C-alpha cells in the first residue's frame, strides 16, 4: 500500500495506477492493482494471489480514516496481510492508519531496508559520529530550524549556517541587513544560539561575505559585499566566495558531515553558487571516505541539480521526517515497530 498527494476523497489524479508499469518493470513480474483499499473485492484479490505475486492497493489517503488513524480502518488494512513492513520513511513522522495503526493488529511489524538505512544515518551516524563532525544548516527562516540547530549543537563540533536565516543572526549582532529577510521576533533566539554554541565549544561559522541583489528575481543586479556592509535597499540571496572558502576549509577537517538546507536562493542560477559549491565539496570529501549525509528537502534537490547525488553516503527521502529525527523527536511510525530501532546507536 502507498499514498500520494492530499486528496479529499477519491481523486483520479492521485490514483496509484500509473505506478503499476514501473513497479512491474522493477520487480520483473506483472503487478496487479486493486481499485480500492479495503472491502470484499480487495479481500478476494488478496485471497486469489499466488505465491510470489504482488498486489498494489489504491491510495490509502482516499479514505479520511487514514489520517485520523481510525482503529477500525487500520484493522481492515491489517486483515489483508500476515506481517507489516514499513519502508516509507517520508511518512514515519505521522501517526496514521497505514504507518502506526496497522502495527496494533499485525505482528511482526518491522522496518524495511530503506527505513533502516535512514535510521542508521540520521539517527545512528548523527548520534555517534566519526569526529570531527560538522553540520551545515541553511534555509530561509531560523524558526523552521530551531529544533534542528539546538539538537545538533549537542552533537557537532562545527556548525555552518547559511541561507536566509543568517540575516536574523546578523541583525542580532547589530549589523545592517538592508532589505534581507529577518525574523524580528527571533533576534533573542539567535543571540542565545550563538551563546550556546560558544558555551559548548562548538565552532559556529556565519558567512563573512554575501551576494546581494536589488530585487528578489533571477535577473536582479548583484554584487558581493562583506556581511557587515549590506546597503539599504539590497537583500542577501547567497553566501559569498570568501565564505565558501572558509566553509570548505572547515569541512576539510571533518569525518562526518550532515547538510540540511541551501546556502542561498539556489533556484536562481545567479544565487546558486554557494549551494552548488558546498554540494561539490561534499562530493569531493565523500570520495575520500568522509561520511556525507544529505538531510532531506532542498539540499537533496541541490545535490541532484549539481549531479553529485550518487557519490554521497546517504540522501534522505524524508522532508518533515528528516527534520523531526534530527531534532531528536521520536517518529510514531518507527516507535510502533517491533524492533525498538529508535533506541540503538550506530556508527556508519
From TrEMBL:
<dbReference type="InterPro" id="IPR015824">
    <property type="entry name" value="Phosphoglycerate_kinase_N"/>
</dbReference>
<dbReference type="Pfam" id="PF00162">
    <property type="entry name" value="PGK"/>
</dbReference>
<feature type="binding site">
    <location>
        <position position="236"/>
    </location>
    <ligand>
        <name>ATP</name>
    </ligand>
</feature>
<comment type="similarity">
    <text>Belongs to the phosphoglycerate kinase family.</text>
</comment>
<keyword id="KW-0547">Nucleotide-binding</keyword>
<dbReference type="GO" id="GO:0006094">
    <property type="term" value="P:gluconeogenesis"/>
</dbReference>
<keyword id="KW-0460">Magnesium</keyword>
<comment type="subunit">
    <text>Monomer.</text>
</comment>
<dbReference type="InterPro" id="IPR036043">
    <property type="entry name" value="Phosphoglycerate_kinase_sf"/>
</dbReference>
<dbReference type="GO" id="GO:0005829">
    <property type="term" value="C:cytosol"/>
</dbReference>
<dbReference type="InterPro" id="IPR001576">
    <property type="entry name" value="Phosphoglycerate_kinase"/>
</dbReference>
<dbReference type="GO" id="GO:0006096">
    <property type="term" value="P:glycolytic process"/>
</dbReference>
<feature type="binding site">
    <location>
        <begin position="296"/>
        <end position="299"/>
    </location>
    <ligand>
        <name>ATP</name>
    </ligand>
</feature>
<keyword id="KW-0808">Transferase</keyword>
<protein>
    <recommendedName>
        <fullName>Phosphoglycerate kinase</fullName>
        <ecNumber>2.7.2.3</ecNumber>
    </recommendedName>
</protein>
<dbReference type="GO" id="GO:0004618">
    <property type="term" value="F:phosphoglycerate kinase activity"/>
</dbReference>
<keyword id="KW-0067">ATP-binding</keyword>
<keyword id="KW-0418">Kinase</keyword>
<comment type="pathway">
    <text>Carbohydrate biosynthesis; Calvin cycle.</text>
</comment>
<dbReference type="GO" id="GO:0043531">
    <property type="term" value="F:ADP binding"/>
</dbReference>
<feature type="binding site">
    <location>
        <position position="267"/>
    </location>
    <ligand>
        <name>ATP</name>
    </ligand>
</feature>
<feature type="binding site">
    <location>
        <position position="145"/>
    </location>
    <ligand>
        <name>ATP</name>
    </ligand>
</feature>
<dbReference type="GO" id="GO:0005524">
    <property type="term" value="F:ATP binding"/>
</dbReference>
